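If you are new to this repository, start here. Below is one unmodified record pulled from the training split, so you can see the exact layout before writing a loader.
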Amino acid sequence: MKLIDHEVIHKAFGKGMIIELQHDKIMVEFESGVKVLTYPDVFIEFMTLQDPIMDEAIRNILKSRADDMKRLEDEKKDAWEEHIAKMQVIPVKTKKKASKPKAIKPVNRANIAFKCNMIDVDQLDFSDVFKWVGSDEREMSIKWKAMTSLETSEENKNKALKLKRVQENSLCVLTMKEPHQKEKERFIFGVFLVGETQESDCIEASFVNSKNEYKMALTSEEAHQMKFWKYHSNANKPDIPSWSSGIHRYFLDDQAVQILKDISEIKRDAKDTTIAEKFLSHFIEVNAVDIDKIGLPSGALVKAV
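And here is the target side for that same chain:
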């Protein structure tokens, strides 16, 4: 199928033209620059061809591939069921004590930002110079793991703060500022998609970490362009950049998408530009974000203007 020079529409990047196709990668030139996307997966939800005949042909390819995958899964399932039947395993029924069903309170998923400290302001190598509050030195750079601080109230003193709203596929944002800078200069130096959360009831801290490919560290130049308070604001004083107590903040998906879009734009000419674009598309997909409802950043720095 000849796709070169055909026009497309991408949910995040707008109108563009296909300029190259290589195996599972497709290069599209948008107004914001050339993007390298995964082919044909990008056509599942995020991109369509302007030519209806070509677009239908792509849909047929995707449907055929999905049917083949379903057929293979069904064959595996049938083979497994046949294997179990030959073993003639009879499950042993055990009596369970009747218990009253517990009421489960719904928890709205959120994303999380952490406040970090700089170890050495004379070096700006972001793989070495950061120290988590409440964790060991270099913990983030080695394990991509972030920890909470401890409760200070008398009732729960020295118990770990619980990350009740952070779930798998939440975005974790790592922020800091240099010692001489004001709070409004706080910047984002790394992001990752949460793969695991663990809550603790004892003195050990609760934590989130990444168990997938979606993680990015920003260079010094890139990080200083990503001002945290451009996207985030306090409910009580929305025009004042103030972190005050605690080392983590929750924020919603619209701010997460704004952050990932700006990182993707900043890394447009960097070697990890494909990772940034794939990160943005994956976050939108797995969290069912309606990209059409995402507005411009409206954090404290924007409100203060």
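Two things worth knowing about this chain: The mean pLDDT is 80. The first strand starts at residue 7 and ends at 10.
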